[in-house]
Amino acid sequence: MKALRFYCLLTLTIFSTASAQNADIRLLRDINLNRNTQLDGFFKGVTNTTVLVAFSVPVIVMGVGLIKNDVPTQRKAVVIGAGLVASSGITYVMKRAINRPRPFVTYPGIQKLTDGGSPSFPSGHTSLAFATATSLSLENPKWYVIVPSYAWAGAVGYSRMHLGVHYPSDVLAGAVTGAGSSFVTYKVNRWLQGRKK
């Protein structure tokens, strides 16, 4: 009886995984192969902004804090930077541990329009973008910071599928990793500041 239950559970797990993978590639094919090719250049540009924007934000915030001799602003820069470092580290470890091939490797019909060399899961660009958007939004909870930050991060995530280098699940995992890393970093900083007081 135990063997039968184990077999049923194993079959269900394999079927669920295969079903999820099928949905993943179907959605990617729909996005990538039915894309508006006139937007290819735009989405390449969006993708290419990721590293520059992500790592410029804490540098600029720190610069403003130093110029104004404003310690709370300097602290914000450190927290934003820590969120990016945490997100990058977690993403790197997950990519190496899971080692999922890029979709254009597994499915040659996917049109690859930009570089994509490391393993696929999770999306590093999306992780960085959502870490940046979350950090900025937590440190400056104003609609005119939150809306553009997340609009940019969402465009980065979509661009990775449009350009054929990530599955939708890679992008979702990247968004969760980035946002989660920055949220935890922010909360840890608040806790540490509370202890100092």
Structural description of this entry:
With 197 residues, this protein is mainly α. Helices cover 80% and strands 0% of the residues. It has helices at 2-33, 40-67, 71-98, 103-106, 124-139, 143-162, 168-196. Helix 5 runs parallel beside helix 7 (168-196) and helix 6 (143-162) packs antiparallel against helix 7. It is elongated, with a radius of gyration of 20 Å. The termini are far apart.
What is the secondary structure topology, with strand pairs?
Blueprint: H1 2-33, H2 40-67, H3 71-98, H4 103-106, H5 124-139, H6 143-162, H7 168-196
Question: What is the gist of this entry?
Answer:
The chain is mostly helical and 197 residues long. The chain has helices at residues 2-33, 40-67, 71-98, 103-106, 124-139, 143-162, 168-196.
Given as residue ranges, the uncertain stretches (5+ residues, pLDDT < 50) are 6-16
- Count all strands and give the number: 0
Count the DSSP helices: 7
Terminal CA distance: 60 Å
Could you estimate the helical fraction of the residues in percent?
A: over 70%
Q: Approximately how much beta-strand content do the residues carry? A: under 5%
Give the overall shape, derived from the CA principal axes.
Answer: elongated
- SSE series: HHHHHHH
Mean pLDDT: 88
Main beta sheet: none
SSE-based structural type: mainly alpha
Rg is 20 Å
Descriptors:
mainly alpha; 197 residues
